[in-house]
TrEMBL record:
Protein name as it appears in the record: Transketolase
Domain Transketolase-like pyrimidine-binding: start-end pairs: 465-639
SMART domains linked: Transket_pyr (SM00861)
InterPro entries: DH_E1, THDP-binding, Transketo_C/PFOR_II, Transketolase-like_Pyr-bd, Transketolase_C
Oxidoreductase is among the record's keywords: yes
Length: 799
């Protein structure tokens, strides 16, 4: 058994007692601030203070946390949160200096450390205590936690990674996870624990068990009402054997907690054995959140028990019984900590509110001048006075008032005062766009748009090969170039994925870099997110696009908004590789683009028509620092393509469509496998005198950043949007982008048309494909009808 750390002293005990009471007073004060209207909502860590102090004593530089919103005591104990920052988040202060975790973008209790410097580069993660950015969905932290731990395994076992000394100390880092007992009912929890046991990674999970999930007690949550009992099958049989170590400790037993965490962390860190610590008999003195009172659903006996077993009261009893402190010493600490929190709260409110008040006063001064200039004091004065006398204005009040007043003076003569208000409003809108709308994507030099474009080159005698071989050569070249790149997924390793794009690469680069996984899409993505957060370059494969649904929640809630919710403080440049569109059957022909486009803004979406285009996107993305989803054409792996001589170096820009065929009568906007079908139809249409311009958008996010489609519509004055999604799906998205964003409606002489699949999954068989998704005849008829409306004599009705 690993040796434990040096025993704690009286000074350590009193330091922890002081911090525990600071945290308790912070929780109590936070609840009051919500009820006073100074914050919208509050959720706090009261009742969990003592186990978090014990966990913090086992947490070292280089370690990572993926937790949930009860962990305030822990974050302060490791020096990554101040109480003023705690209240700044409660007030939603958008100043990243005041609230560095989320810049006011997430409600309180969502913790994160800033892992990027001002240029968007990773700092030395081995010299800091790190917290990945929290999310609210229950158990949603678990997939990412797995990836954080998996990175340590790679850093330890892959000698090629030992050079990255700013990212890891040879895999010495533990990934600490925290979760409430009720949230362990989620499938993501079980999936992540099973994967950690299979992978044998240093993942230490603490379950804070206070017996409830909001109002629902444990008997409705967990078999046997004990997560540790039902997970005992994971317990390893002995040192060197696969499995977990599982510990159970009471949440008010200070010394038992300290010893348990020291022992558990030593095993986890040194042996890379995952650990589950079930912390029982915890309480939640203020209930779940400010949304209600726990007295509504807890019995009197339970409330009495919770008061008796409050971990702070138990810690006080222990300190007195062991002679480590006197009643007077502890009373003084409790009074002093209340004062500390009051000071932090007052400072945080001033830092949040004073700038808003100054903005309000400046706006009022300009508006009063406008009122005087327009001579309409009687109609406008009341609105200005209401803003002026508002005791707690928010920025929306300022902007709303200015916009409404400018609306009312629209018929007045343009005065100096009116222009001054307009200019100030523009300034405020720009400032608030930075506060609330910025950093959805990377703003570093490695952002996708900054990657140098390198055209593909082809030798005169270039071979015609299966499309999968183009990808295989691309991945081979990139794996040689960058040792931080690895690929994981179902069937990716030994057989090289079901379509053979990784064939032979496991033998060449080793199992750590080209790795099979179990069937667990959610945690495959999480495994990639956590590893990417730590500076590695994972490619995670989802075998078919239809199966992305298993992982869409993690992609949406975690990866897509990571840079946004940290305002550029963290990044995870994960590449998700999958395949879809035409093939056979309900669950292997998916094109759920509407779902994807609506749920993962913040992740680029590439829809290459062939494998050469896909290789160009991979080359670009593997040199950038942004996440992306690449959807390859499922029916394209055996089609012949010319392999570029610079297959691992050429890059394709994202957001730039390609004109596949020039035309003058109709523009067809499409992507993916539909490109071949539209080109077939265009050839048939040419035979009857209709000239079709075919445009492959190539990426849906971003979409046509240079407005090349607009140029085409200026020429043809007609447009058809075609794809394999359901009606109103990606075709509607493309139409909105072109007609609304690019304002192409100004150049249309005919109704824009959308051609999509049927509103159901595609039926099996070739006939099922033909009658479920658009075919060349559908494209022909749609375009022919469009032309017939304009020139019925030249193009008489077919049917």
């Amino acid at each position: 058994m690993p040796a434990l750390a040096a025993p704690l002293t009286k000074a350590d005990f009193l330091t922890d007692y002081r911090l525990a009471w600071e945290s308790r007073h912070a929780s109590l004060a936070g609840r009051k601030e919500v009820f006073m209207g100074k914050a919208k909502f509050g959720i706090f860590g009261d009742g969990k203070e003592v186990p978090q102090l014990a966990m913090a004593r086992a947490f070292q530089n280089g370690d990572f946390r993926a937790g949930y919103y009860r962990d305030q005591t822990f974050m302060v104990a490791i020096g990554q949160l101040t109480w003023q920052q705690y209240f700044a988040q409660l007030y939603a202060n958008p100043d990243v200096e005041a609230e560095p975790a989320t810049a006011g973008r997430a409600m309180n209790g969502h913790f994160a450390t800033r892992m990027l410097d001002e240029d968007g580069n990773l700092t030395d993660l081995t010299q800091t205590k790190n917290s990945s950015a929290d999310i609210s969905p229950t158990a949603g932290q678990m997939p990412r936690l797995l990836g954080l731990a998996y990175a340590s395994k790679l850093f330890r076992q892959n000698p090629e990674l030992h050079q990255f000394t700013n990212l890891s100390n040879n895999g010495n880092e533990i990934a600490f996870g925290t979760i409430g007992n009720a949230s362990t009912s989620e499938g993501m929890f079980f999936e992540a624990l099973n994967a950690a046991g299979v992978l044998q990674v240093p993942m230490l999970v603490s379950v804070w068990d206070d017996h409830y999930g909001i109002s629902v007690p444990a008997e409705y949550q967990t078999t046997k009402q004990s997560i540790s009992e039902i997970m005992m099958g994971l317990q390893r049989d002995g040192e060197g054997q696969p499995g977990f170590e599982i510990y159970v400790v009471r949440g008010w037993d200070y010394i038992g907690l300290v010893e348990t965490y020291q022992r558990a962390a030593a095993v986890c860190r040194e042996q890379h054995v995952p650990v589950l610590i079930h912390v029982t008999e915890l309480t939640q003195p203020q209930g779940h959140s400010t949304s209600g009172s726990h007295e509504r659903y807890k019995s009197k006996d339970r409330l009495t028990w919770e008061e008796d077993h409050d971990c702070l009261h138990k810690l006080r009893e222990w300190l007195l019984a062991e002679g480590h402190a006197t009643e007077l010493e502890l009373d003084d600490i409790e009074k002093e900590t209340a004062a500390v929190i009051k000071t932090a709260r007052t400072a945080a409110w001033a830092a949040f509110f004073d700038p808003i008040k100054a903005e309000r006063d400046e706006a009022v001064a300009l508006l009063e001048k406008l009122v005087a200039d327009t001579g309409t004091e009687n109609t406008l004065h009341e609105q200005v006075e209401q803003l002026k006398t508002n005791p707690t204005p928010i920025r929306a009040d300022i902007v709303r008032t200015m916009r409404r007043i400018l609306r009312q003076v629209r018929n007045e003569k343009r005065s100096f005062g009116r222009r001054a208000v307009q200019r100030h409003l523009e300034q405020l809108l720009a400032e608030n766009a930075d506060r609330y709308n910025s950093n959805l994507f990377s703003q570093s030099e490695l952002a996708v748009g900054n990657i140098e474009e390198v055209p593909a080159t082809f030798a005169p005698d270039a071979a015609q090969v299966d499309g999968r071989e183009v990808l295989q050569a691309c991945f081979d070249a990139n794996f040689q170039r960058d040792p931080a790149i690895f690929a994981i997924g179902e069937d990716v390793g030994k057989i090289g994925d079901v379509n053979q794009a990784f064939a032979g690469l496991q033998d060449k680069f080793g199992e750590l870099r080209v790795t099979d996984t179990g069937i667990r899409e959610c945690t495959i993505i999480g495994q990639g997110i956590g590893a990417a957060l730590r500076g590695l370059r994972p490619i995670t494969e989802i075998q078919y696009l239809d199966y992305l649904l298993y992982a869409i929640q993690i992609l949406s809630d975690d990866l897509a908004n990571l840079q946004y919710r940290t305002k550029g403080g963290q990044k995870a440049p994960l590449i998700v590789r999958t395949r879809g569109h035409r093939l056979e059957g309900i669950w292997h022909s998916g094109s759920p683009m509407q779902m994807i486009l609506g749920s993962i803004r913040g992740i680029h979406v590439c829809v290459p028509r062939n494998m050469t285009q896909a290789a160009g996107f991979y080359n670009t993305l593997l040199r950038s620092d942004e996440p992306a989803l690449v959807i390859e054409c499922l029916n394209g792996y055996r089609l012949k393509e010319t392999i570029p001589s610079n297959v691992g170096e050429f890059t394709l820009p994202l957001g730039r469509p390609e004109v596949l065929k020039q035309g003058t009568d109709v523009t067809v906007v499409t992507y993916g496998s539909m490109c071949r079908i539209v080109l077939d139809a265009a050839k048939q249409l040419a035979e009857v005198g209709i000239s079709v311009e075919v445009i492959d958008v190539q990426t849906l996010l971003p979409f046509d950043t240079d407005q090349l489609i607009l140029d085409s519509i200026r020429k043809t004055n007609r447009v058809v949007f075609a794809d394999e999604d359901v009606p109103g799906g990606a075709t509607a998205y493309m139409m909105q982008q072109v007609l609304d964003e690019q304002q192409a409606y100004r150049f249309l002489d005919a109704q824009p048309r959308c051609l999509a699949a049927q509103p159901h999954r595609p039926a099996y068989s070739s006939d099922g494909d033909y009658f479920s998704k658009p075919n060349a005849e559908d494209v022909f008829d749609t375009i022919y009808e469009l032309m017939s409306e304009d020139a019925p004599e030249q193009f008489p009705a077919i049917y």
